[in-house]
Amino acid sequence: MAIGKKVRRALVFLLVSINVVILGGCWDREEINDIAIVLGIGIDRVKNGNIRLTVEIAVPRVIGSGQMGGTGGDKEETIIRSGTGVTIADAIAQLQERLPRRLFWGHMKIVIFGEQAAKVGIREHLDFLIRHPQTRTRCNVFVGKGSAKSMLELIPPIEQSASEVLREMAESRTLMRKTAKETLQTLNSEAETVLLPMVKVLPPPKGKKEIETIPFIYSTAVFKKDRMIGQIDDYITRGVLWIRDEIKLAHVTARVPGERGNITSRMIRAHTDITPKHEKGRWKIIVNVTSEHDIILNGTKLDLLSERNIQRIETELEKDIKRRMRSALDQLQKDMKVDVFGFADAIHKKYPSRWRHLKKRWNDVFPDLPVELNITVKVRRPGMNFPPQGVPEQEVKE
Amino acid sequence: MKAWLVVGMLIIVGLIWWYEWSRLEREYKKEKAAVAILLCLAMLLGVILMVNPDLPGPTQAVDRLFRPFGKMLEK
Amino acid sequence: MENEKITSVQMMMLLYPAITATAILLVPGVTAQHAQQDMWLSPIWASLIGFLTVHITVQLYRLYPKKTPIEYSVDIAGPFFGKFIGLLLLFFYFHVTAIIIREYGEFVVGNFLFRTPIDFVMGAMVFVCAVAVRSGIAVLGRLAQILVPVVILLLTIIVILVFPDIELENMFPMFENGLLPSIMGAATPQSWFSECFLMAFLLPHVIDENHGRRWGNIAVVSIMLTLFFTNLATLFVFGNITASFVYPVISVVRYISIADFLEHVEVVVMALWVVGVFLKISVFYYALVTGLARWLNLSQYEPLVFSVGLLLCLLSNWSANDLVELTHFLGTTGSFYLSFVQTVIPLFLLLVAKWRNRAASPQPAVSHQERK
């Protein structure tokens, strides 16, 4: 051996130590205090067709030290920056100029499209968000009434950031919820339509600053291809959700004929089956809904212990649900003529070979497609009481 | 820049050479020759790739060879 | 050559990552492009090639025990053609190992270390693999025995974590255009299955060689199941947009979010996945270096390891210009290339060997006749 054991050992040790130095993330080493964590972004269209990108960035010293609470009173927990450019990537470049830290996209929770941007088309922006290796395909997508920037600028009283507010709202599933992945999936589906939740600013209570409020989801934007063509209100939206089998939270109020007062039930779970049928050369859609409910309010004098009363209530609830679905169909199928219900996919899945021919004429066929609604409501529990409260026993109807 | 790459290559080749040489006993002539040839090949390839990084490689050759089959899977 | 031994279970554990590790990267995307919603079926078709390759390899080994393809190709095709086939195999493994290293590099640089030079990523990996290969097959076998169960466990956990996000609907309509799309989709994964031919280089070291066939088939089945479940999980999550992802599986892992709490798990996945690729490259590397040593009639292969590693680094840089070219190659011509060398050539060798054995009785390989 030409070289002694000690020298050899020293050399090995040197090699290992070199590894320790150079393998700490290689060229991509990024310290936490060098990055700006993006929580949410807003995309607006400004004059001459440019894109204005607004990002909400977490201020690390405040977020995460929640226990200390109170002391940091009016210190903002997030900051807002904007940049403009021809594309969103372009805007990011300008935005980066105005930030001391490098933008980090791994924690982005929401994307808001301004109304104008949504009307021009969202595909290009979605492409960027999906293509980017840091962003999450799980981020929630919204359309903002007015500008997206105004939504992000709000300082919500409870949550730490406007982005977090919107994410929580979407995840509570009161109305629509769409992640970037789901948006692309529906864009790529047979019908090529998208529904996105629409948000606006909740007017602040008196005495509070204009900005100290939250954005909230109040309706739904309807997209044909990637362009927004209109919007539908919350009532219609629930009808659509019901048909699409996406409803998670619903209260149904009904009146029983011959009785005074209302009955409200809460949906526990619902299931919808869309079955396309082809009969005598004509297409037909059959929508079967089964829904389980609990009664949460009884303003009538009906005793809920009686099976007959429950059946009457069930019939009325069914009618109300049917009315919602019918009005959703009226507005979207007859007026706006967009297939947001997933009928096209249902036909594609059941009759793949026939769909190939039908697809070309789908836009003509769809508005006149007969839709049969079959709804079965089961009232499972009457809440904590059987008889109506505050009614003398002799007036209670069995 | 390129000069540094050549120097880097030389250092790596030298290290491997020294390491293998020091471990091989005298009678392993064939092994030594094999190592030397492989290192020369590596050096040669390295220099060629440095001069002409876009040189068509083995992948292109195979691609040419199997093109008729590959066509079946074109999308 | 060296007399180190592994068990047949260890051989299976080496084969499993040697195929799976990169088969869950680019392959699901390519499969989805052809098979769309039937992509879950493709691994099952593809595994047929795996079984065939295992069968051929084991048959050849029975005819020529204790020999690798480099040696028995000489026995079968004569000194000139035999050496030529050996050289072909060596070139092939040089090229394929380089491509695997490149795939690994592209993946790491494309997903995690964006600004790190790819040569550095690949070089670091090759160095680690070189050290492992130098340590011999016994060490590799034991490494695999320790690491592969962890990798399998991890893949299982991923599939379970994906559960809340699955949409069974994405599977329909089944067989929209008949079975052909799913068979077309199998073209790329089948070339991965043909890599079972690596068994031929491992079998001479297996102690309980009688179980070689059984564990080879078990390896094929477990790989098939892994691909089946990962494809299914991707399809259930991404549905009609699966084909648009370069690395669908890692995108699915990124999508995982359990109760807003268990998120960003892909880093853990990555760490253990790199382990899989490490084993994969090591197995190929080992086959290549020992093959080369045998072809040159050297008494030991260790001295060649580092210099071959350097060549591999250069070759992986040379093997493709960019990710698009690499994916296109693997999705089209590469599929035929891999299975041609690893399934068709061995099949040809086997047929010739059988024919020769029948034609002339006093041939070198007699052992199989005793067995029959």
From TrEMBL, chain A:
**Keyword Nucleotide-binding in record:** no
Q: How does it sit in the membrane?
A: Lipid-anchor
Q: Which Pfam families match?
A: Spore_GerAC, Spore_GerAC_N
Return the protein name: Ger(X)C family spore germination protein
Q: Quick one: signal sequence residues? A: none
Give the UniProt subcellular location, in the record's own words.
Membrane
Q: What family does this belong to?
A: Belongs to the GerABKC lipoprotein family.
Spore germination GerAC-like C-terminal domain residues are: 220-383
Q: Which UniProt keywords apply?
A: Germination, Lipoprotein, Membrane, Palmitate, Signal
Top-level taxon in the UniProt lineage: Bacteria
Q: Domain (Spore germination protein N-terminal): give its ranges.
A: 28-200
Which NCBIfam families does this chain map to?
spore_ger_x_C
Q: Which organism is it from?
A: Geobacillus thermodenitrificans
TrEMBL record, chain B:
Q: Which organism is it from?
A: Geobacillus thermodenitrificans
Q: Which of UniProt's keywords are assigned here?
A: Membrane, Transmembrane, Transmembrane helix
Q: Which superkingdom, per the lineage?
A: Bacteria
Q: Where are the transmembrane segments?
A: 6-21, 33-51
Recorded protein name is Uncharacterized protein
